[in-house]
Input
Amino acid sequence: MAGSIFGKIFTITTWGESHGPGVGVVIDGCPAGLELVERDIQLDLNKRRPGQSPFCTPRDEADKVKILSGVFEDKTTGTPISLLVYNKDHRSRDYTEIMDTYRPGHADMAYDAKYGFRDYRGGGRSSGRETIARVAAGAIAKKILNELGVQLVTYTKSIGHLTINEANFEASIIYENPFRFPDSELVEPCEEYLNALIKEGNSAGGVIECRVNGLPAGIGQPVFDKLDGLLAHAIMSIGAIKGVEIGAGFGATKMTGYENNDFYKDDHGHIVKESNNAGGMTGGISDGSEIIIRAGVKATPSIHLEQKAINRQGDLIDLVIGGRHDPVIVPRAVIVVENMIAVTLLDLLLQQTATQMDYLKKLFKNDA
Ligand SMILES: Cc1cc2nc3c(=O)[nH]c(=O)nc-3n(C[C@H](O)[C@H](O)[C@H](O)COP(=O)(O)O)c2cc1C
Output
């Protein structure tokens, strides 16, 4: 399928369908010599696995990753790394009822219009399962970024009308509650909110936020491959993401220039900012301060409430969707957003090595 490759140096090619034998990714351009074992990738895959709480799809998948190539004696070899995850608990019969129906809010009608063919079993490539490949590739990107001192923290900022209180922020609890909230006070109200929606067969959306620290200034390209542009591309390419904000985001449209401009000051030889409305980048290039990105996630389209839909013949019908679905996608998408950000940042960092004569001399000139 065209459009399944992302990146220029650290490239990822994802493949596989929700109800096919498996899904996977080929990563080309990963530097040799990185220590890598399956567990490094598995830890991140476990964070998006289904069936972990009553607030995600009960589809029971172990999502065990297998490294097929590109690693020898627990070190990357510099050749393509191929990763495979088998699908085990797919029940295609759940979808036979909707094989001639277009689910509102899902990609069914658009895929049919594009290909004149429809893989109705679980959404095929438009399924959330495709994101396994992104998470696996991002786990490797993050390992490299971490060795370079770049750290990412990603969490649920809001679900429905419930938004975290920054004063309660605790990074250590993000993966200790089913919603990936850094604010423990929101867990109970969210359970109540979602239980009520599940009871009526409905779903919710929300906002994911990522903060990146340690990224040096100068990362990102000046025109088509701006840091903010590529981040938006990477994040918007995830199913159900409907918006991306950097820094103050749409809030900046309500500020005057004086309010919005970040004020730089010198703190013992370092340039630091008092505000960070730009979210760590200007001109599409990082400025060395914290990168702040938000992703808006829509409510899960496949709901059990009866709704109007059309079928392939164009008839209007009353549709009740069966099968197993996430009542809210946000918690499982937290690691997907984080890892797509990691893939994007690493690719741009690698591109940066070719932007200054000084870098080239340090790498290649014998007497440097
Ligand atoms: C991690 C993840 C899990 C998802 N789970 C479901 C699901 O259970 N049911 C569903 O209808 N959509 C689910 N989606 C969303 C669909 O993939 C997405 O809405 C669909 O492809 C249409 O694309 P769009 O919403 O970007 O327009 C999930 C997405 C992600 C990223």
In short: The chain has a mean pLDDT of 94.
